[in-house]
Automatic annotation (TrEMBL):
Keyword Cytoplasm set for record: no
Claim: Disulfide bond is one of the keywords in the record: yes
PROSITE patterns recorded: CHCH
Pfam families for the chain: Cmc1
An example Gene Ontology CC term for this record: mitochondrion
Predominant cellular place of this UniProt entry's protein: mitochondrion
Organism encoding this protein: Puma concolor
Name recorded for this polypeptide: COX assembly mitochondrial protein
InterPro entries with a match to the protein in the record: Cyt_c_biogenesis_Cmc1-like
Keyword terms of this UniProt record: Disulfide bond, Mitochondrion
Family: Belongs to the CMC family.
Cell location: Mitochondrion
Amino acid sequence: MGLEAAEEHLRHVEKDVLIPKIMREKARERCSEQVQDFTKCCKDSGILMVVKCRKENSALKECLTAHYNDPAFYEECKMEYLKEREEFRKTGIPTKKRLQKLPTSM
């Protein structure tokens, strides 16, 4: 079964949990500058972060939301998920475990 056929058979958990999880991870990578700014602001502001970091929080939300609402980004993440699922069905090894098992030094 090709990826196109597999796509029609996405389970509820895949559409609503697993693909959005990939989207969140990738969006955080793509918004890393905003993530860093917000994190730094929170560390520097302590208990006042809610008040002091509004600008950084808004910038981060704006960046993440732009990705979440982008149909092309969703498609990209869905294809990545389908490739991982296909690979898992062939090997029985989840991607994260497969990547961890690669030797880091020879």
